[in-house]
Amino acid sequence: MKKSIFILLSVALFNCKSSTDANQQSDSFSESDSWIYSDQEFFGNGQFGSFNIDSLSVVSSTIKNGNKNITLTNATTEVLDPSGKVIIEYSYNFSSPFKYKIPTNFGDTISQLNSIPLKVNGIVYVGSIITIAGNGDTLITVPAGLFHCACFRTETFYNKTFLAAINFRFICPTVGLIKSESYDFDSSSGIRWLADQYQLIKIVK
User: Fold this and answer.
1) Residue 120: beta bridge partners?
2) Cα(first)–Cα(last) distance of the chain, in Å?
């Protein structure tokens, strides 16, 4: 029976080449904005899975330690600098807590979560999740435009050594999440495939 690994994580694309472009998107963050995303699932055989449109907006805003903390409709928290226009920290707590600080240094370990229960083919293993900073200035193209982003790579292991999933997330300091992709692994075939792609398609002002 084919063994498949199902990791319920939302993460980001692997593309860490730095670049610039005169037509890049440069809109500043605004609390009145809403962000429209496409969410495409893929199967290991290359076929398309479910497709959804997701809309995020600001639901609350507070001041902590002199910085503005913004909470979005998906429970993501964005911490803005004193100007209120640049994101310096991006965090969410879905199946596991994640926190990204911007700017960051290439190769830095952003977080490491150990003793995480991961279910594989009905068996629960003890796993770990490690997030590492990639290129701090990566140009990403999505339907909404071109954006300079910080790149983060998340690796999920079980039994300490087996790399079960690789995830990449790109965050633009003046916009928020631009694109994320997750790659799963089939242990029987040794094939790794794109399992989910989540990308910004429109900013509504």
Assistant:
1) 123
2) 50
Residue pair 202/189 in contact (Cβ under 8 Å)? The answer is: no
In contact, 82 and 63? CB cutoff 8 Å: no
Write the pLDDT tens digit of every residue in 67-89. 889 999 988 889 998 888 889 98
C-alpha span between 191 and 97 (Å, rounded): 28
How far is Cα 68 from Cα 77, in angstroms, rounded to an integer?
Answer: 10
Cβ atoms of residues 182 and 60 within 8 Å: no
Torsion of CA 11, 15, 16, 21, to 10 degrees: -110
Neighbours of 175 (CB within 10 A): 23
CA distance 69 to 78: 6
Burial (Cβ within 10 Å: 0-12, 13-18, ≥19) of residue 196: buried
The structure tokens listed for 90 are: 């991006």
CA 170, CA 31: separation in Å to the nearest integer? 20
pTM: 0.77
pLDDT band at 2 (very low <50, low <70, confident <90, very high): very low
The answer to whether the beta carbons of residues 54 and 36 sit under 8 Å apart is yes
Q: Quickly tell me which residue has 């087996």 as its tokens.
A: 162
Quickly tell me which residue has 């398609």 as its tokens: 201
Tokens 């495409």 map to which residue? 40
